[in-house]
Amino acid sequence: MQRSKNDVWVGLFVLVGALAVLFLALKSANLLTLNFSSDYAVTAKFDNIGGLKPGAAVKSAGVVVGRVKKIEFDGESFQAKVTLALQSGLAFPQDSSLKILTSGLLGEQYLDVSPGADGKNLVAGDKIGSTQSAVILENLISQFLYSQAEKPAAEGKKP
Asked: How many whole angstroms separate alpha carbon 132 and alpha carbon 151?
């Protein structure tokens, strides 16, 4: 009887430990967000979102102020339509701008909100018009290589 009781406690302890490890793994991968505060949704359109994913952080001054809720393709403007869930206690001016940045050199991408100076604040359903797309490393490398290939050709033509 005593051994059976110990087996139940050990099994329960292992189960709680496994749930804790699963919770930490989902939290670290941004696949699980527990948000008990209310938020409001705003949208923005980008020419290129790079590797931005739903659930990515929305930061202002380095502080997380929301999350990316949804990413869709707009067939009319041929742009990516990003829906953000911003914390309801924070009011950003309507002329705020968004840009997609990367944490570190090869880290995850997030949205940075730069507040504007307008007197009116964003409300649910508003659209942010001023956006800056993600910097794609492959495009920068190809531009650099193309400019380097042009240099010898231009120098060879000089008298």
From this structure: 30
Does residue 54 share a domain with residue 3? no
Q: What is the rounded average pLDDT of the residues 94-106?
A: 86
**Do 83 and 40 form a contact (C-beta atoms < 8 A)?**
no
Domain holding 15, by residue range, is: 1-32
* Cα 148 from Cα 142, distance rounded (Å): 10
Residue 5: enclosing H or E segment and its boundaries? helix 2-28
Instruction: Flag whether 158 is in a domain.
Output: no
Q: How many CA atoms does the CB half-sphere of 51 hold within 13 Å?
A: 11
Flag whether 149 is in a domain.
no
Q: Are residues 46 and 23 in the same domain?
A: no
User: What is the domain count for the chain?
Assistant: 2
Residues 47 and 28 in one domain: no
Q: State the pairing for strand pair 63-74/57-60.
A: antiparallel
Q: Which amino acid is at 22?
A: L
Average pLDDT, the chain: 85
Q: Please indicate, yes or no, whether the overall pTM of this predicted structure exceeds 0.90.
A: no
Side chain identity, residue 144 = F
